[in-house]
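[SOLVED] Predicted holo structure with nicotinamide-adenine-dinucleotide

Edit: marking solved, answer below. Original request kept for reference. I posted the sequence and ligand SMILES and asked for the 3D complex as structure tokens.
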Amino acid sequence: MKILVTGGAGFVGSHLVDELIKLNHDVFVVDDLSCGKKEFINKNAKFFKLDIRSKKINNIFKRHNFDIIYHLAAQKSVPYSIKNPGCDANVNILGSINLFDNCVKYKVKRVIFTSSGGAIYDEANNFPTSEMEEAKPLSPYAIAKFTIEKYLNFYNKVHGLNYTIIRPANIYGPRQDPMGEAGVIAIFINNLLQKKQCFINGGDQTRDFVFVADVVSSLIKALNAKNEIYNISTENDISILNLYQKIKTILESGIEAELKPSIIGEVFKSQLSYQKIKNDLDWSPQYDLENGIKETINYFKK
Ligand SMILES: NC(=O)c1ccc[n+]([C@@H]2O[C@H](COP(=O)([O-])OP(=O)(O)OC[C@H]3O[C@@H](n4cnc5c(N)ncnc54)[C@H](O)[C@@H]3O)[C@@H](O)[C@H]2O)c1
């Protein structure tokens, strides 16, 4: 199939592109390289350095007749979105609408969109949290993700555009940017390998970490999905302090983390259910945290 991946130079997108090429698809990438790296883009993909908000996107859709769009390009920093809600909405919401308009115009068969399971439930009432839980997006980033989901519903009901929404928990793995504030596993590994001290705000807050290869396999399963929303997770949450101890032990490091006060408003517990995608598409995670961390360490060592 002809498949466009937006954000295909980024952490998750570049792994997805590699897998789609292995499966013999004809893959195209749109990325403005604001965070992504050109060297991550598979040599067999056709690359357009372009902003998803650009009107030039129209020419690419017109020329290539895509079957599927994977939409991963995003402003992904929650702190940035809090400081700059307008810029976040501009990239994430208006950029998505620009793509969806082209999907309708050029009769794309399905949009597969990465929303965020880690952000949109906020402080959930039920654990592991299922897709039935009320979304209570707090940050502008989470509000944008939820809004885009609602736009997909609109484009489906009014224009017949098919979609699948993937809500991953916290993703980690090779190629994650250790300089950003999102990838705590990448940050801990990178710092400890360089014998630098890490700091932790709070530490008792828990997150459900899912390995990037498992997220990619869920995105591949989504090719055969219906217009549904799926959490992607492991159902095992771990506190940030225990996570740090685990990485420290694997790396045989003696460096203790500096503890700082909790960040007000930060979610205390995040643990998502993946039972819906397991039942519908036979997906379940294949990596446990220890194996995933070891693969990530090998990558950072190189
Ligand atoms: N990493 C996680 O833990 C996580 C969890 C849940 C959801 N997600 C979502 O998954 C997707 C991929 O995340 P990631 O961690 O790979 O992030 P990433 O920043 O590595 O990848 C995003 C890519 O989008 C590109 N991009 C940004 N703005 C653009 C624009 N205006 N036009 C074109 N390209 C643009 C960046 O250059 C980058 O290559 C994002 O939508 C993110 O919100 C990530």
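OP edit: The chain has eleven helices and twelve strands. Thanks to everyone who chimed in.
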